[in-house]
Amino acid sequence: MNFLDGSLFPENQQKLVITAAPYGPEWMPSDFPEDIPVTMEEQIQKAVDCYNAGATVLHLHVRELDGKGSKRLSKFNELLAGIRARVPDMILQVGGSISFAPEDDGDTAKWLSDDTRHMLAELQPTPDQVTIAINSNQMNVVEQMCEADVAGTSLADPAMYQAYREMTIPAGPGWVEEHIRRLSEKGIQTHFQLATISQLETVERMMRRNVCNVPLILTWVAIGGGFDAPNIYNLANFVRACPDGSVLTLETSMLNVLPLNMMAIAMGLHVRCGIEDNIWTQRRDRKMGSVEQIEQLVRISREFGREVANGKEAREIYKIGTFYEGADETLAKNGFAPNRKPGQVGFLQHAA
Q1: What are phi and psi of 64, to 5 degrees?
Q2: pTM of the entire structure?
Q3: What is the model's pLDDT at position 109?
Q4: Is there a contact between 151 and 32 (Cβ–Cβ < 8 Å)?
Q5: What are phi and psi of 220, to 5 degrees?
Q6: pLDDT-based confidence at residue 110 (cuts at 50, 70, 90)
Q7: Pairing state of beta strands 91-94 and 270-273?
Q8: What is the pLDDT of residue 163?
């Protein structure tokens, strides 16, 4: 991404797209009963409340009535239909892990099978996006958490902590390419959840091989534990690696969320918040719900002079419904250099 003179002026930046992640599958309802929805109506209403607060993208997981993460696609269909009817302009982004919460104490926190995850392309009503990880990887979501982060929650249970500490992401190349193909056939946008520059490079190679003809809409997930750490050096390197046609959201965890989101707002990037990422105020004097976190970002963004996108504007920024015809168009639209043709030498750039 290029940062020319004036890039930090709000009049030269896109409006801010806020992604809300209010379902928090790593927590049990007893961890934050005031803000963790359990019944279907509560889960639908939470989406409505997040939208009314200023979030235009909803990162979606589903719970059963017993409070555990649902693995039933019928429940996803029910939630998608309920939200679509209430807030039709909201971008509905299904979390590609489906449910990584352990079934019982001591069980491994794991993603469902390859075939089950492919079924996300069959959801009805069709979501706008499904998130996808690239390259199988460690996902130790508790590595950078401290004792104060988990105090008084289910993650303070050694068995639960260990379950999340050992979690891994299955995302091999064959499965990833097939998943993108199935999503694209159904008109569902792939939203890339990337941990490192090497994963971004894998996405670029897929685009060059004509197997990933989609806009580069991505989130940099800086949670440690196999992912980047949320520091300015990693962020600057990742932003530098992103081509100019990409749309980048920042994600991290716990008390890193607000500082990183403030950087995103200042830089013209986009933000994510909600109890899936953090449940505490910056002083840890109380828990902070998803709606309050959204309202905080709206207030800060307006202090920066940057307006928040509404639902229709967010759809334009995220290029919802856009797909490309082949590798050449995909590379050009996303801002990558073209593929080298026979006889071409030197560094390449797109023709004017």
Answers
A1: -85, 170
A2: 0.94
A3: 46
A4: no
A5: -85, 115
A6: very low
A7: unpaired
A8: 87
CA distances from 25 to 53, 72, 155, 225 (A): 21, 14, 12, 18
pLDDT single digits (tens) 67-77: 988 888 899 99
pLDDT at 145 over 50: yes
Would you call 158 helix, strand, or coil by DSSP? helix
Dihedral through CA 191, CA 227, CA 51, CA 101, nearest 10? 100
Query: Minimal CA–CA distance to 297: which of 271, 329, 336?
Result: 271
pLDDT of residue 108: 46
User: Which has more pLDDT, 170 or 149?
Assistant: 149
The pLDDT of residue 104: 53
Shortest CA distance to 91 belongs to which of 60, 69, 45, 63?
60
Give residue for tokens 């993208």.
Answer: 57
* Six token digits for residue 26: 């790593």
Cα(112)–Cα(101) distance, rounded to whole angstroms?
10
CA distances from 143 to 69, 147, 165 (A): 22, 11, 7
Whole-angstrom Cα Rg for the chain: 19
Please give the C-alpha separations between residue 337 and each of 65, 158, 190, 204, 207, in angstroms, as whole numbers.
50, 49, 21, 10, 11
Amino acid found at 95: G
pLDDT at 112: 54
Torsion angle, CA of 255/259/262/264, rounded to 10 degrees? -100
Q: How many CA atoms lie within 13 A of 166 on its CB side?
A: 11
297 token code pair = 């970002």
Beta strands in the chain (DSSP E): 18-20, 57-60, 91-94, 129-133, 137-138, 168-169, 189-194, 217-222, 247-252, 270-273
